[in-house]
Amino acid sequence: QAQLVESGGGLVQAGDSLRLSCAASGRTFSSYAMGWFRQAPGNEREFVAAHRRFGGVTYYADSVKGRFTLTRDIAKNTVYLQMNSVKPEDTAVYYCAARISGTYYSADAYDYWGQGTQVTVSS
């Protein structure tokens, strides 16, 4: 059974850095486009970052552009989200997801989801 498992979340202070990992198992996701979303309490799940199915271009939400970086290690079947200069408004549960097709910023386009990892940024 295909599975995505996030890790790396925690409690950090504003301005700190954090790296989230998303390990895939049960199948090879090399042909999938990977993305990160987040959801804060009372808010809808929102797009954070994603890349194209076969790489080449990475998209970021305006709120994280210049601070967050999505990378992928195909050999390890793992995707990362490097979060630098974090802010209190980055506090949320972060989810990684995989899609074959569809709009990169739409959660509905994603076929597989992880269980999420909590990131809390204190001021």
Descriptive notes:
The protein is mostly beta strands and 123 residues long. The chain contains no helices and 11 strands.
Instruction: Provide a count of the helices.
Output: 0
The tally of beta strands, per DSSP, is 11
Q: What is the terminal-to-terminal distance?
A: 40 Å
* Proportion of helical residues: under 10%
> Runs with pLDDT <50, length 5+?
none
**Overall radius of gyration:** 13 Å
Order of helices and strands: EEEEEEEEEEE
User: What portion of the residues fall into strands of 2 or more residues?
Assistant: over 45%
* General shape: globular
> What is the structural class?
mainly beta
Q: Mean pLDDT, as a whole number?
A: 94
| Major beta sheet summary | 7 strands, mixed
